[in-house]
Amino acid sequence: AVEFTSRLGKDIMVPFECFEESWVLFRDEDGKAGCIKDECAHRACPLSLGTVENGQATCAYHGWQFSTGGECTKIPSVGARGCSGVGVRAMPTVEQDGMIWIWPGDEKPAEHIPSKEVLPPAGHTLHAEIVLDVPVEHGLLLENLLDLAHAPFTHTSTFAKGWAVPELVKFSTDKVRALGGAWEPYPIDMSFEPPCMVLSTIGLAQPGKVDAGVRASECEKHLHQLHVCMPSGAGKTRLLYRMHLDFMPFLKYVPGMHLVWEAMANQVLGEDLRLVLGQQDRLQRGGDVWSNPMEYD
């Protein structure tokens, strides 16, 4: 998953990187999303610097146009007759569950994306969809998201002030979920969904406060989160964050509330970032980030 459906409007191009290659998303005339190499077949100018005209990515340099399938459809100086055999690479692209998915692999993609796990349980309302470019290797970021043992020490100025220090995490593996379980004593259920997603359901005693010693399923209020950590390049991650609540649905309609959620997400990420960036630096210098694993690891 590389973008939220709600963020890719008509006549908009969204550039991004995947495995150190530049790509761009846009919609055709019928509104169907496509993903092509962000590099004009003529002079290698980034197509994302141009515009979308009648569902075609139009280069800002000489006006060459390309479809969502990557075919060159128009060269202004010669018209359509000069386009035969000219094009750029494209990736299979589908929209499902409010997200735009690409397939960067060499083999043929599966017909269906098994993404039902990314949706929250019934009764939840969507409150935030945020996309951030993070200067951290995606594996380190995934590990950070799954590791709640750091919360009472790292997030003391945001959400985890006064939290008890956890002793263990009850994780399991099976065919349905690659890695999932519950932290003790927190009312938090988490899972890792391949290839690069982390899901969490947090039971709240009251808005913003967990009740230690109970399970998430025993709580009346819940925060459901999805983190997608797409490897954009060496030491870089495209992070998609989506948040649902099963209480206070009116917050969705409060003017400017999305700015509040975005500020909170950035503040929490900032608390993690200085530590994970330090890990990444030491890793690049030959350090071992798993030298003394504990039970909760």
TrEMBL record:
One of its GO terms (molecular function) is 2 iron, 2 sulfur cluster binding. It is found in: Plastid, Chloroplast. InterPro entries: ARHD_Rieske_2Fe_2S (IPR015881), Cholesterol_7-desaturase (IPR050584), PaO (IPR013626), Rieske_2Fe-2S (IPR017941), Rieske_2Fe-2S_sf (IPR036922), VanA_C_cat (IPR044043). GO terms for cellular component: chloroplast. Residues 1-102 form the Rieske domain. Keywords: 2Fe-2S, Chloroplast, Iron, Iron-sulfur, Metal-binding, Oxidoreductase, Plastid, Transit peptide. Signal peptide: none annotated. Gene3D superfamilies: Naphthalene 1,2-dioxygenase Alpha Subunit, Chain A, domain 1, Rieske [2Fe-2S] iron-sulphur domain. This is Chlorophyllide a oxygenase. The gene is CAOa.
